[in-house]
Amino acid sequence: MSSERENGRALCSSPINRNPYGHGNTVSDFLSNVSRFKIIESTLREGEQFANAFFDTQKKIEIARALDEFGVDYIELTNPCASDQSRLDCEAICKLGLKAKILTHIRCHMDDARIAVATGVDGVDVMIGTSSLMRQHSHGKDIEYIKKTAIEVINFVKSHGIEVRFSTEDSFRSDLVDLLSIYSAVDQVGVHRVGVADTIGCASPRQVYELIRVLRGVVSCDIETHFHDDAGCAIANAYCALEAGATHIDTSVLGIGERNGITPLGGPDGADGRHASRSKYRLDKLKDLEDLVAEAVQINIPFNNYITGLCAFTHKAGIHAKAILNDPSTYEIINPTDFGMARYVHFASRLTGWNAIRSRAQQLNISMTEKQYKECTAKIKALADIRPIAMDDADSIIRTYYRNIQSGEDNPLMDLNADEIVPFAAKKKEPREVPSA
Fold first, then answer.
1. Please, which contacts does 364-371 make with residues 24 or more away whose CB atoms are closer than 8 Å?
2. Where does the Pyruvate carboxyltransferase domain lie (predicted)?
């Protein structure tokens, strides 16, 4: 029995050679592309459909160059048939000489295909609705017409030596037999990618995994996926699609797009605990990209935005702060430095612990005993119990407390107003167990 206990302790205490920012002991799947996907960045196509979006030519060029610097594989542009300016903008971006391939998104129609090819794009993304609702209320065509026209458009685009993708719109409300019949037909004529689109954001991760897994067994070409965020599942759906064998993910900066938008750029990168994308994409450019687009569409980046939000790497609770100071991966699944971000241990609150105050004091070049750090922490917590305090307030208490120790004086730690003096004095007299963090 004792040897079993010893073996158990040895197993528990032995170091595990793994990425501390990883997702645990996950089982690898030979079909999974989580660590080797490509990004089709659609801020300049899907993003133009966002309620606040208006990008003039210069702004489109600025965004396109920023996306290219980030390292996206493809940049998708609005259908050049949408307007004269859309066509001119498409032609202008094609002439920039970017490393990313330039795509445009068109209806499954020969007129659109001819205009798209003439702009000089590297590829054309063809789309048509396949659900009964889309066929009845959008274009009025049946499945056989869709297959016939899709093959015609694909062959035309391929004849010009450029990439072509065919996507069904409203894929998850389409009949599975219809979908597989269409995908099989376009795969046989050599389409480069087939696209699966959750156009109304109704799909769940399990539905996504099952459909992509089935499709992976039907087609030999690449699989692109496009997920709307109406039910808040866009990032999860994209991740599940990659696990099931999808190869390409459509994104936009901050997820902007029609209604609630689509999978945000950075979402799949953040979800990939293995950070295979770290060497491929300039993840440190994500914040700059988001700031650029947020300003252009006049929105604020949400406080809880994945990776780049104000609070993404802020730690406040005492237990968390202590662990973070010892090993950041204890409470962070993402390493902020991979994205050019920094963590912040919030020490100016009633929740702070003495390890956090010790860390801050050391940043201020102040060294004290453990007992003194704990006493200083108690005074900060006493003030935080009667009013909100800022970082400057906590710093002032630390500095004044330390000067009092050095001089043997008892100067007031803070300038308090008349309403705060009595409550603060009472709080200081209360017995207080100072947490270790």
1. 364/395, 364/398, 364/399, 366/398, 366/399, 366/402, 368/402, 368/405
2. 37-293
